[in-house]
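Handout, section 4.2: multi-component inputs.
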Amino acid sequence: MEKEVFMNEGTQLTWNSCTFGMEIQANDLNSATGQVPSYFLNPNWENSMDHSDPFESALSSMGSSPAASNAAGSSDNVREVITRLGNLRSSSGEISPNYCVKSKSTSNSGYSTPLSSPRMLNLSMVDSQIRGNLALLGNELTNLAPLSVDPGFVERATRFSCFGSTELPQRLVPTPRMESGMLSRVTSNQSIKVAGSHQSNKNSPQNGNSGRLENAEIGDSKEECSVSEQIPGGGSITKSNNGTNARKRKSTPRGKAKETPYPSASDAKVAAENDESTAKRNKQDEAAASGNAKENDENQKQAKENPKPPEPPKDYIHVRARRGQATDSHSLAERVRRERISERMKFLQDLVPGCNKVIGKAVMLDEIINYVQSLQRQVEFLSMKLATVNPRMDFNMEALLSKDIFQSPGSLPHTIYPVDSSAPAFPFGYQPQQGLSLQGGIPNNMERQFSLNLLNPSAPRNSSMQFTSMDGFCDTAPLVPSFWEDDLQGVVQMGFGQNQPQNFHGSMTAGQVKIEL
Amino acid sequence: MRSPSSLKQEFLKKWMMGLHIYGSLKKKMSLLERKKAIKLSADIAMASARNGTTCWSRALVANASKDEQDKILVQHILGTESERLMKKVSVLPLMSNKRIRSKKVLRRSYGSIRRAKKSNIAASPPNKVLAISIAKRLVRKRTLLLKSLVPGGEFMDEIALIEETLDYILSLRAQVDVMRSLANASELNNKN
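Output:
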């Protein structure tokens, strides 16, 4: 395979970049957020040699997006990853196997491309040029359209099918993408089939459009990276080869490629499903002894999802084994599991103070355990303290509030947060607590005894005290544990920015208006 | 996930509610009783502030509702959600037990396969194998410890454990924060 790749390297450079440009264009055209393609393209293409770094960063941002469960963000990330993948493909030294197929197709049709145009020129394409290429390629596509009907060509393409199918993932094997991939190698038969069906049925000029459509749907869907990255690949192949059957797994016999009106969950549902399906697939992976069993699973799934309107498949996850790595389902699942764990460990690392520099899982776990224990002990200690301080169980909120307000800055080092320019209106020590207490007290009003009016006396006093309490605050600011700062900052903004006006509208006094200054 | 401040507010609200319930239930309490009550109500308030979406919070509620008297408190604090949560709690351990058992079986068989393989392959560098096994043992020991620390941790697999630990740490932080503020405030109150 490598040989083939290099054989065709010299001849197909322009083709590559053309198709590639179009692929990216298609992705970006359809992105809902309207990202400018050149935004991603330019930096990457300039330093195209070290493709691992931007890629890694893209993946890391991917990794963080599920945690935030920010749908829009994740889709953006997906797109970014796709784009970067594309860059990777174009910038790395060898030509992807896909292009072999392409070269065959062109030679078959007698369609001639300018062969020797320098690659770098194409690499430095910016947005407008890509657009130009898109138009150009559209023309080419119409020219090439009859090709896919040609039986001999189909046969040849079948020979190359494995190359085509493994195009993206395989090229990625040595890159960091697999490290943080967290996805199991689950079969992609379904997607291949759909790609095949696209090819076989839409071999008209419409073909390019269908490919783009596919990308559009994918662009909108929130997906895990490899899933959607794979499918745009499929789309691009469909486009560039004009419906050759490039996408096929080795294990799948060609005859099986059947036209299925493809399932399409609504985007949101797919996004929600995605994790589950990953897990499920992993389990399936474990359970299935052979590739056939996996295929059956896929087919079952397909059958299950049939009633939904057509759309390309999404929930396919690719994990490729590196050279020398085991490829049986157990070890693949195990690897996926490990990757997931390490990804979450990274979050923990960020969360636990002093855990950043630690290397090694055991030590990291040690740190985490220590931290959890210390927090739990703190809770114990504080509840003990509260118990000693309050001989009766009632916590007198009025007294507490007034105390908070009057005395906190000088004598309470913990809860003081550093001065922040973003919150210049209340840079004073204890207000977070006050905001909290007020907020806490109010909802109980309906059934419990924290009455609203107890807040009223405190509020004016508070506003008058704000300006006297600055000095003590400044002295004690350095004592703040760093990890509280954000929280408290947030409390201030919450307590004063939003909640107070809502909660106090019944009994608004002049003093409270002052608080919000 | 919600912002830490709203979590704190929620927590404080529920905690105060719980404390008042305790105060009305029992007039005279010893120091330790009081401490226990405070801690329990703080824990439950924390759990209910997380709205029962996490395993650790459900496990906390489950543990608390074992005691008959605490159960009343739990019900009070959780209010309308209590039934839902309690139901979840009662279902959860059963299910997870079953899952765990099957997983254990799986792992056992899996482990035996791998061990057999390993003994064939990795006989050559004995030091490396030893180091790996030691590292694994260390990690396993710590994972067990962590499981005992996080409420409900026994029922989690490793990925879930780490996720829950993340959430638990965040919540504990908020809890400690609020409690410390209150402790300081009431201390000051008593001084004067």
